[in-house]
Write a structure and sequence with these properties.
Number of domains: 2
Distance between the termini: 56 Å
CATH topology of the largest domain: Jelly Rolls
Largest sheet: 7 strands, mixed
CATH superfamily of the largest domain: Galactose-binding domain-like
Structural class: alpha+beta
Number of strands: 15
Order of helices and strands: EEHEEHEEEEEHEEEEHEE
Number of helices: 4
């Protein structure tokens, strides 16, 4: 007969280890449920998370290429707003965060951002001009059952590692375009099956803070004609590596809500 391991509570009563584990697991489940029952999920880019000159806690700054090693991102205060400043000079600044969010429940995403300049003389519909002063994209969980065995092998060998998340589930991306019009939707120059939505375009609002609120669930459905799965990854980019230019931008208050 196997040994029975026990522990004691402060009153001296003996509690079987299995019961203790049950209590711990239930406690963890309760904590998760409480988080999921909130009306708003904070992604860690609000004033409460501010740490001067640091990278936001819970986020990573990708340094996997020569261009990304030159990118910079850190907390700052700009016009009274606690924000993350991103800067690139012929570089790629790539903030990333792994998440696990039910986008059917938390369908609305909101944030505010500001840029100091646009990029000149580029065509963002081409790979040579695929740079933006700021953009944010959301990656959804792939459905393995709809991927070929060969694709799943490639994911295992290098695709998931190279992209920093399970690959192949589709994404929705919002950009501040240097030359396209607000409301335009274009194909991603590097992957034409994926779509980019221009939420701000041109020089008109340069140097000003602007707030946005999008129904991420409906945007994905409209773009691809299918429902998104769980949200698994967020990327925020300020990139000038294709065009060799310089850009500075700021982002703050990224949140998900039910309404």
């Amino acid at each position: 007969m196997a040994d029975t391991y026990t522990t004691s509570n402060p009153d001296g009563a003996v509690i079987p280890l299995a019961a203790l584990l049950f209590i711990i697991v239930c406690g963890a489940v309760t904590s998760t449920t409480l988080l999921a029952s909130q009306d708003v999920l904070d992604a860690g880019l609000s004033k409460a998370s501010y740490r001067q000159n640091e990278i936001p806690a819970g986020w990573g700054l990708r340094k996997s290429s020569a261009a990304s090693k030159r990118g910079t991102a850190q907390w700052t205060i700009n016009e009274g707003v606690h924000a993350v400043r991103l800067n690139s000079d012929a570089a790629l600044t790539f903030l990333e965060k792994t998440v696990n969010i039910d986008i059917k429940e938390y369908s609305t995403v909101s944030w505010r951002w500001k840029i100091e300049n646009t990029l000149q003389g580029i065509d963002e519909r081409t790979q040579a001009g695929d740079d933006h002063p700021i953009r944010i994209f959301f990656v959804f969980d792939p459905d393995d059952s709809k991927q070929s065995w060969w694709f799943r092998i490639k994911r295992f060998l290098y695709l998931d590692w190279a992209h920093g998340h399970p690959f192949g589930g589709g994404f929705t991306e919002y950009v501040w375009s240097s030359h396209l019009e607000t409301g335009d939707t274009i194909n991603d120059p590097g992957n034409p099956s994926q779509k980019l939505i221009v939420v701000e375009g041109g020089d008109k609002n340069v140097g000003q803070w602007h707030s946005y609120k999008r129904n991420l669930y409906q945007d994905f459905l409209s773009l691809y004609g299918r429902e998104p799965r769980r949200l698994i990854f967020i990327g925020i980019l300020n990139d000038t590596d294709q065009t060799g230019q310089q850009a500075t931008s700021y982002i703050a208050d990224l949140k998900f809500s039910k309404y």
